[in-house]
Write the structure tokens for this entry.
Amino acid sequence: MPKISNRRASQPDEENPEVTATAFAKARPAAELLPQFIGEKAAQALFSRSRGRPVKENKKVSQNLRLDPDVLEAYRQTGSGWQTRINQVLREHMPAHRK
């Protein structure tokens, strides 16, 4: 079996030159170069997007809550959204906040 380095496809050519330390030193961040090719506005839009889900104003709080098994099963049987329905029932029955 020939060595991989002896195969013609693994050797650099003018279309696919070997990357050297000098080439890495000349490398520039895409944020600097893209405005030249796609325009300032398009590059700004590309890099200004945040990742993930947008942050809500009123985030929900993760809390452990002990429920009777039959209550939990009854809500789970109602299908998708059962936690939201439990939240709504608790909201309707919460005591009024007094100052």
In short: The helical segments are 21-26, 30-38, 40-48, 69-76, 82-92. The two ends are 83 Å apart (CA to CA). Residues 80 and 86 are 12 Å apart (CA to CA). The mean pLDDT is 85.
